[in-house]
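Translate sequence into structure tokens.
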Amino acid sequence: MIMGMSFSRGVLFHDRNVLACAEVKGGVIHLWAEKITLRTIGKLWFRIFFSFPWHYQLFHVLLAAYAVAAYAYPSFALFDPLWIAVYIAGFHFVFPRVMKKFHGAEHKVFSYSGKKSMDAIGEVAKANIVNEGCSTNLVVWFFIGFLLTVLFLPLEWSVACGVASLLGGMFGDRFLRKYCGFAYKLSGFFQKHFTTKEPDRMHLETAMRSYMLFEHIREVHRRSV
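Result follows.
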């Protein structure tokens, strides 16, 4: 199964074995690909975190420091640190603008059914920006569980209900798509209007090059095993 992920500098695609990434540095697209290892995962998350604008990074460091301080000294807590978990769950809605454009480009590459090549970039630009397999689906399921309970349950139980709903969306996807289609329509609405933006050519080219590299490196991996 091929999965994609966008960040504020580029797009990556991966399966269980290999990962390929294209990222923009100084206006130039750089490519790299590796087999999936713990080192690769660490490298990936390091890139994702430090690709955010400085004010995002500062805000997240402050949130982490507050969470530690609030659990160490509960009497000084200004608000329940579990609200930070709710913020993390809804982070899709506050992606930086450029990240939304890379996210949109990633979706369009998935939506385009033809051969992925730079010659097709004009057609890719016209593809659907909504992706049925987007992680926004799980965000929607979290908030369904959370919002249905937050007014009459303690916050920790509401968060637990949100997590349970998210896990239900993750493992019961086929069943829920059949009987709870409203959630996926809601996810599609959020994708189109909140978690993505129409990409420019740079974002599309970055996503395309990442996917093409992934296809190449996956084929090389297959031949080597």
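Note: The first strand starts at residue 3 and ends at 7.
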